[in-house]
């Protein structure tokens, strides 16, 4: 029997195998070269920092080892301008703050910002800055050492912590958005230096600290932002006391806090108000804390005014000057349909009346606020209820249906329930209707 003839290899297969082998070898060589280059060219975070300081702040001097080994960015790391990722202390009176500012062309820019005192002055200024990570900003090269040595440098951090501070000249052609991100990063660092590092003391920061101290540990985690200085709140004037600062404090999963600060220094009077700010949960300015020297006059004014102001502005009522919280006439404010619980008045005739209506499900009630202006109902919303299990059916259609109930109706006579109800809420809607009519009847009595 003859031997089998060996079948020759397919040339195409052989060539394919050779090609794959060559490609594999090339890939392995490239990986090895990349790994070698990575080792040779790798710059650690520490080395990157040292190189930056060598370029912009040679006086860093190795920093304050004790501070830098124990300090954590902690609360306050984010503010209205950006967020802080790292903080280092130099041997002198300077700090290096790594801040990220948003609003750039591609997103955000991370910047080293050196702040501190210079030449023996008590003024804390921006000493130097340098972009750490441009985040892919395509025209970053347009911003050179010329800008780095002129923008912000030598300016007080209290200036750059202000949202209104004009930095319109801090940009070069083609970098408007990139410059915005850098500007936000510098501002974020300055705000952090004031509010967290306490490098300078300002009336606003002192007031904020006093609010935090007053609230205590039960309110840890709240972030307080200034809404405006008191010059825009003339209607808050109580006697000779005018509002100096108004803060809004927020915390995930918790009701916002409104803090009213009158006066400054030893004359400061603080009232902190807790507000639930949804149409279904807004409560009548429940004071949860006040400083020892906050007078009852100021407390009562803030309780009434903050409630009234929020309510009226929510429903677009005319401009108003707050007049006060009226005494309730029980002869008019109590009846078969319910009760009138509070009346907030304005010099222009606008009223906010809190009324509770009877006739709800299982003998329960619904409490609402009714805004009345020029003899008609400008708006209303639910404050609370008792035993009304289907009231969420009304709240669910608030923006499309219930919002229009009663609105623009004249108050000269009782308003029928009619179609002002949704499925399953006949009795709750009856209680709301009774509350509306209690408010209208009371408003009519005041107009007589």
Derived from helix and strand composition plus strand pairing, the structural class reads alpha+beta
> How big is the Rg?
33 Å
Oligomer: single chain
Order of helix and strand elements from N to C terminus: HHHEEEEHHHHEEEEEHEHEEEEEHH
Distance between the termini: 130 Å
Number of helices: 11
Write the layout of secondary structure elements.
Blueprint: H1 11-41, H2 45-56, H3 65-70, E1 82-89, E2 94-101, E3 109-117, E4 124-133, H4 145-148, H5 157-160, H6 176-195, H7 203-215, E5 223-229, E6 243-250, E7 257-262, E8 269-274, E9 286-290, H8 296-314, E10 322-326, H9 330-333, E11 334-335, E12 338-346, E13 351-357, E14 365-373, E15 376-386, H10 392-396, H11 426-447
Antiparallel strand pairs: 1-2, 2-3, 3-4, 5-6, 6-7, 7-8, 8-9, 10-12, 11-12, 12-13, 13-14, 14-15
Question: Would you mind describing this structure in some detail?
Answer:
The protein has 448 residues and is α+β, with helices and mostly antiparallel strands. It folds into three domains: 49-195, no CATH class; 203-314; 324-447. It is built from eleven helices and 15 strands. The chain has helices at 11-41, 45-56, 65-70, 145-148, 157-160, 176-195, 203-215, 296-314, 330-333, 392-396, 426-447; strands at residues 82-89, 94-101, 109-117, 124-133, 223-229, 243-250, 257-262, 269-274, 286-290, 322-326, 334-335, 338-346, 351-357, 365-373, 376-386. Strands 10, 11, 12, 13, 14 and 15 form a six-stranded antiparallel beta sheet that branches. Strands 5-6-7-8-9 form a five-stranded antiparallel beta sheet, sandwiched between helices. The chain is extended. 36% of the residues are buried. Mean pLDDT is 80; it is low at 276-285.
